[in-house]
């Protein structure tokens, strides 16, 4: 009897270790991809027009719930690093808190709707489109700029216009990343042993 309980305890410990390791790996990859985008594309990873390439990794939530805390943790790490790289200072905490919240909400919706991948990927698009523009104008104004890129239109005095602009550009950028990069990533992953190793116990099958 003791050996049975000991075996169950060992299995539970091993499973918990697997989950922690998986979350850590996803967080590390997301943070690394985000920092690469920040270093090479600058504000395209956090500014008024965003194409954060690492958001394509949200598709991992189609395979495992561990992607939700993993992506969230990775976003926190990347946004903390960005506070120093972009010069946002303490205002960057807005991105750390609310930007990471948007990633968490989007990843969770993707996981909850994983049986319908095309619809599931709308979760991150909507979460980022709604949440990020709500704080981004405050952050940008604090570091001294908010002119719509490629125009001379200054929206510094109009929060609502800034929000609407961000709603469109952030949502569009997220959609491009997820549907142009994310979906091919899903198809590529399905040809590897990775999805089977990430599957939840009930084994969710997806088709794209």
From TrEMBL:
Pfam families: QueT. Gene3D superfamilies: 1.10.1760.20. Keywords: Membrane, Transmembrane, Transmembrane helix. InterPro entries: QueT (IPR010387). The chain crosses the membrane at residues 20-47, 90-111, 118-140, 160-181. This is QueT transporter. It comes from Lancefieldella rimae (strain ATCC 49626 / DSM 7090 / CCUG 31168 / NBRC 15546 / VPI D140H-11A) (Atopobium rimae).
């Amino acid at each position: 009897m003791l050996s049975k309980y000991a075996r169950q305890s060992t299995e539970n410990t091993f499973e918990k270790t697997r989950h922690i390791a998986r979350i850590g790996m996803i967080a590390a990859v997301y943070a690394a991809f985000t920092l690469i985008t920040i270093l090479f594309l600058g504000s395209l990873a956090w500014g008024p027009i965003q194409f954060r390439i690492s958001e394509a990794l949200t598709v991992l939530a189609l395979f495992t719930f561990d992607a939700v805390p993993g992506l969230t943790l990775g976003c926190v790490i990347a946004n903390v690093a960005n506070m120093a790289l972009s010069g946002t200072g303490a205002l960057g905490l807005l991105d750390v808190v609310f930007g990471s919240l948007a990633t968490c909400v989007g990843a969770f919706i993707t996981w909850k709707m994983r049986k319908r991948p095309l619809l599931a990927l709308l979760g991150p698009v909507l979460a980022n489109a709604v949440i990020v523009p709500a704080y981004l104008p405050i952050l940008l104004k604090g570091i001294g700029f908010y002119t719509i890129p490629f125009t001379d239109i200054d929206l510094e005095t109009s929060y609502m216009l800034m929000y609407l602009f961000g709603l469109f550009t952030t949502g569009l950028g997220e959609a491009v990343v997820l549907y142009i990069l994310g979906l091919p990533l899903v198809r590529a992953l399905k040809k590897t042993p990775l999805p089977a190793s990430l599957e939840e116990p009930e084994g969710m099958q997806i088709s794209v």
